[in-house]
Amino acid sequence: MDWGQLESELGTALPADYKLLADTYPSLKFDDFLGWFSPASPSDPAIVAQEMMDVLQPLRTRLEGQEDIDVVFSAGNRSTLPPYPVYPQPQGVLQWGMTENGDRCLWLTRGDPDEWTVVVERGMWWHFQGGMAEFLVEIMTRRVRCPLFPEDFPDTLDVEQSLD
Questions:
Q1: Distance from first CA to last CA of the chain, Å, rounded?
Q2: pLDDT tens-digit series, residues 22-32
Q3: With contact defined as beta carbons under 8 Å apart, do 22 and 1 qualify?
Q4: Alpha helices in the chain, H assignment, sequence order
Q5: Which residues lie across from 86 on neighbouring strands?
Q6: How far from 8 is each of 44, 75, 83, CA to CA, in Å?
Q7: Cβ neighbours of residue 98 closer than 8 Å, sequence gap 6 or more
Q8: Strands 104-108, 34-36: pairing kind
Q9: pTM
Q10: Is residue 27 a contact partner of residue 43, using CB atoms and an 8 Å limit?
């Protein structure tokens, strides 16, 4: 992947952990539930950038005009907050993955890309105060549980690499 061209097309740099993972593994699925968007296929950076923007359109449409969103915290308590902006708005959410249940895994694009945190959304929102690689490790080892994911996830530590 020509990261410079992809980042130019997107208008932002991407986190180093994402680029390293993408360069090492073209496609991964965690416990047959959580997948991530790999820029390895298609390899044209302009197409990848357009796909990354297109996948946000339903979220952008749904959030238009909303005054607040429902947020759930790891302890289970809930609150409401103003909606996160959607990328390319400043500090907007940018999707990097999705679950079989339709949960969106997104970066909160605040500050340096290597400091972006993870937000999970499926009607309700949950914020993980770490990056993508840390999120995957913490979730898969069950040190952290996302309250939007099924209770039994992960059931195993299976990570599959798709070679399509």
A1: 16
A2: 888 777 777 88
A3: yes
A4: 3-10, 16-24, 45-54, 57-63, 132-140
A5: 93
A6: 13, 39, 27
A7: 34, 35, 37, 104, 105
A8: unpaired
A9: 0.91
A10: no
